[in-house]
Write the structure tokens for this entry.
Amino acid sequence: MTATDRSIELITTAAQAAADKLAHDIIAYDVSDVLSITDAFLLASAPNDRQVKSIVDEIEERLSKELGAKPVRREGDRDARWILLDYVDIVVHVQHSEERVFYALERLWKDCPELELPEDAKATRGKAEEHAKERAAQEEAGLDDGDLW
């Protein structure tokens, strides 16, 4: 089995929406061979809770407006560390960068084929690592969180 055309369309639109809101490390996996409940997973992350929410809101709005898709389930809103959007055909995970490293979903799905994503989404690979290095340098220089944003 492989992801359906509808799943690919949803993933592509969601990935572009996430990239437009400056998500980090966007990647998608075709999980249709190992899971019967969905065709594909989209993973994205952001360095702060506000941005996680912003990315999720943009994905929801874009999928609704452009493809008429609404999630059947949305979990994790309260603290915005990890928000999951379940569209049945696809599941979107937007995580705070720290959660992304800790839970390492890529390790779980690394044997599944990666789905092709828009160039803007591919360009986000490695952004979380760059951001972490910048923060470490700023903290070393004595700047606190209030100075960073």
Notes: The longest helix spans residues 49-67. The longest strand covers residues 24-30.
